[in-house]
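Lab meeting notes turned into a lecture example. A postdoc, R.K., suggested we walk through two folding results consecutively so the class can see how the record format repeats. The first protein's sequence and structure tokens come next.
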Amino acid sequence: MDYQNWGPRDMSAPVQAKLPEVPVQRGMVLEDVQSGWVGAVTRVEKSGGMHVVALEDRRGKSRTFRLGYGFLLEGRAIRLMPPAPRAAAATGSGRTASGSVRVAGQRAQVAKASRIWVEGKHDAELVEKVWGDDLRVEGIVVEPLHGIDDLAAAVADFRPGPGRRLGVLVDHLVPDSKESRIAEAVMSSPGAAGNVLIVGHPYVDVWQAIRPSVLGIERWPDIPRGQDWKTGILAAFGWPHATKEDIGLGWQKLLGAVRTYADLEASLLGRVEEVIDFLTVP
């Protein structure tokens, strides 16, 4: 017995336990203990000198919270910390997530007339996450098309020409597919030659361009023909998949696993780099 500690004590004083400090990541699903709000991280920024995080719930509604204590991650209490510097840790000091040399002190250029078009929001978010630094230096904007069925009309409205080039990244661009026929029709239209470049990857959806090992799996699940692919993927992972919001939150979790170009398949990397070169080389 330790007689030096003998005497009255305040038994009501709680024992303080050091909570794990977890850097916030986009796509991370958190619960704010005080309000009960549950959502995926969609944005982290500084406001009024402090870091705040935006959490989007299953219904697409978003609320902002200050980083720190009061969050649950997978049921565990954590201290939510500012995001860790990703590019320096994963690709080496002075490099962007795409692996290119970071330009110190370079401000984003005013957006040029040239554009990169991708099929949907998820494609745009993936390109932005990996190549965003490079594109801001070049002044190139990425825009989602929400499908390519009307690509010919959209290209005609864009009126491509010298100094106004267009690069299009298409899902599932394989021989004899609907996508390949649309691409051929567009490239035969007036003004397309030399001013429009259409490239694509072989995957059903851009989700598959994330390397399976990054997600801790050996291969992407096979989804039966006739079943919605994204819904099937989320169901195979055991994630919620019944609503549009479930699909959005599922994608944020997948996107959160992507750190650098090394987390993506080479068949996507080469096509994006080809488009960037096409739009930036005089």
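The second example is placed directly after the first for contrast:
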Amino acid sequence: MFSSDHLKGITPFLYTADLGSFTRAAEHLHLSSSAVSKSVARLEERLGVMLFERSTRRLALSDAGRAYYATCKRVLQELMDAENVLAEQASDLAGKVRIAVPASYGRLRVMPALLQLCGQYPKLQPSIAFSDRFVDLFEERVDIAVRIGMPSNWPAALGQMHLGDEQLIFCAAPAYLARRGTPHTIADLERHDCIAYGRSDGTPMTWLFAASDGQVERRDVTPRMTVGDAEARTAAVLAGLGVAQLATWLVQEHLASGTIVEVLPSYATPGLPLYLAWPLARQLTPKTGILLQELRQRLTI
């Protein structure tokens, strides 16, 4: 049975570990150095281990002390999170939340949505990680992730919310088309400079074309330029260097302003699906539930 005795000595222990001495811990706790030292000693006696290695010159955590410190910090953070959840039930969206997003999509689409939410909910404290690698939500303690593409099997403990499918279009800058002409058929592209997405080994990805039977056809292209970053490909198109196949979320502002125009519209194809993903164990917290709905409203295609 858990009792309040398990909590005794934890605060003096944590302050001592953080500050490196009983004296400095005592100053922060408004206690005597002797009281802090005795409190830690009683905690060590109860646990049956030495939490600190003591010498005349230094006070350092032992191996057992480091393990106990990490556990205490984690438990206290979870208690703080629980208090934030209770506060949310009585007020609005508040507290810390860790969000993982793809790099380009995160900067261009998710970040503006989160900035709006931070303005709407001043107590919200997001921690946002930008990466195109696969993020393990459980291992990295991520609350909500945005994913482009669908795994072959969703983990049973992972929730998902479909935001829609990206649309892939062929596009170029008006200056390039004025100089080289507008392609009207797939064969026309062979006479144009193509800007392809490059894999990590430098080889270009195939382009997708909508076929007459409703299927999607893949074709190799011989690119003038191969670029392994979505925003850099957009920059190359804006510079008038050629035609590229890009997701509409990447260029929608440029399409609206006319700095990029769509070509071959009949060959546009659906791209990858977009999802919100989250550990189901956290779905029941008001913070996660509210944030999921807010993001869904702002990011649904």
